[in-house]
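Quick note —
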Amino acid sequence: MIPNATTIALQSGIPELAELTVLYLNFVTVARLERNPTVREEIALREFGRSIPAGFLVYPVSQAADITAVRATVVPVGDDQLPMIERTNEIVRRLAHLAGHPVLSECRPLLSDIPRLPGIDGRKASKALGNAISLSAMPDEIRAKVRAMFTDPRHLRPSDPGHIEGNVVFAYLDASTRTGLRSKN
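Predicted structure written out below.
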């Protein structure tokens, strides 16, 4: 179900979210946070090695605070954020175990038909890599990024057949012509 209205809140304007994050950090181990595949990918991308900033590992717990503070039961995410939903539900279960009764409801993800777009170079889209198209991008910036998109590496000459699979341009074309959300249980 898609809501009729959306409330947008400035996270830094709600100090209770930071307090809830600190509370939740007592329910999660560092090893568990490091096993998050999205976090592992980002650690490798930034070449942190073992010099991982604590705030970087805390981010999924902060997201859990954002979700549970508003008692969300359905959360729109990309497929790379599914581990974050799992972590949120682990925290909800841990809190229920400690309280001896359910305190919060678990949430489930809401994925679009196209849950993740590649970066313009074919890798994972990342603001840090500069290979993503921002929602706030101006038309000239969008045009430049589209023109720089990774296309078909096997199409070297005009006579070579083209391939749609793995072609970033076609991934964006599909995304711009399809709509719809699906709930994943």
